[in-house]
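Sample A.
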Amino acid sequence: MRPPQPVLSPITEAAIFLVLTVEDGAETDLRCWDRLFGSPRPAGLHALPVIAGARHAAVSTPGDLLFHIRAHRFDLCFELAQRLAERLDGAARVVDEVHGFRSFDERDLLGFVDGTENPAGVAAVEAALVGEEDPSFAGGSYVIVQKYVHDIADWEAQPVEQQERVIGRTKLSDVELPDEIKPADSHVALNTIVGEDGEERKILRYNMPFGRVGADEFGTYFIGYARTPDVTELMLSHMFLGDPPGSYDRILDFSTALTGTLFFAPSADMLDDPPGPPGDERAAVADGDGSLRIGALKGDMP
């Protein structure tokens, strides 16, 4: 397998999430990938579908580029984000920017530990990275991002016991509720995906809280890496439509999805030596200037 980007590293104290669109318009039909790399595309790459339930909806919003910037110091994240925005000025525009932070023992702003079920070791590799089923893109990962804002006042008005039934875990000790008392419409129950082989199918989450106290904004930035987007999309279907239909995720009564986009994170090798755009025989890069020679990026890299 090609060396992956460091998507399997532990969660950090700080992160910045940047979503950008190319300047000539939001490429909602994957034209950006085709312009940069041509074909074939990664087998599972497509626009994230809208999932509209009876009460809540998972939206699909434009995005061509995703930068998931992580560090133990926020100033380092900010410095890199600034440099990226300066470098891409005129070629791409930031349409969503979220500054995330690690809260206590990796808890969200609802007070529950987030990412408890993340796989580790070999299981994380199997869950998050494309394998030989798509050899041209082995070592890459499908990434779905969503920005949720929470109705904190309503949430905090609920008794802890009711909050635990919504989530499906205990709040203080972070223990999953027994099946006999865990509601079928709890967050944990609806996000447990079991394949035809009887094995649970997992993704790798790096969710982070964000917020602005003065604006009464309290949220969670969901970011899930997966070997195939099918698993994450099935989780979203269960959340917003229910499984069975109608039994939607009760956390959505307190959380609203404002954004939703699917990306593909190529392997480190592919980023170091990307294929050229359609019709480009790569001769233009042979002079060593490192340019992809696409639009405003032509010859603009040292």
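Sample B, a different protein:
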Amino acid sequence: MTEPAASNLPSRRTGRFIKVLSRTLHFTFKQPLRLYFLLFHGLRVEGARHCPRKGGCVVVSNHQSFYDPPLVGVALPRMLIYTPRATLKASWFYRIVTRGLDLEPVARDGRDVGAARRMIERVRDGEVLVLFPEQTRTRDGSLGTITPGFHMIAAHAPAPVLPVLIEGAFEAWPRTDKRPHWGRRIRIRVGPPLEVKDLKRDEAARRVEAALLALGAKTRAAAPAEPTN
């Protein structure tokens, strides 16, 4: 058996260190974050039992607010891998906030083949990946177009897709505001896992959209007006 190339050792060691550090940060801040959302937003979580306790999984959630990643993190009982858009790395604030986190940045155009392969392998190895298939935060509280990029990962791993609906985070912290509005209630509903490996990508997207609507997602016609201060 050949030894790994010396040039690869630093990156592998760095990768292992980031995973350990990220897990430590996750379990250190999960309960304080849960308490914050409970006290300031009356957080309620329904259906967390649907989250598989072991094995790979792809979480697909609607995207309402800056709050969404930590909300999904406190709602589900698993360690999660997030997939922020790659362009966020240009922000110094983003780099400070996410330093030490094990992330898989992705390009919006879907052309990052290397990232796709890494995500498939991680899910295949039993990790839980979080995707926001609308690709951007809602502007009016309604559910946007569900893009089918999650299908490639779930189908090739293969792994179940877990639909998660966030409700109230738009009112609590819309994209146009610089600070959250305490007192606005947030609810999270988790649906049963979906198997999509035998579906075509567009059918998988429709299945996820239907699951989110069944959990209570608002359509554009039913969305509330953007909250004001």
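Observation for Sample B: Helices lie at 9-41, 68-75, 92-98, 113-124, 149-156, 169-172, 201-214.
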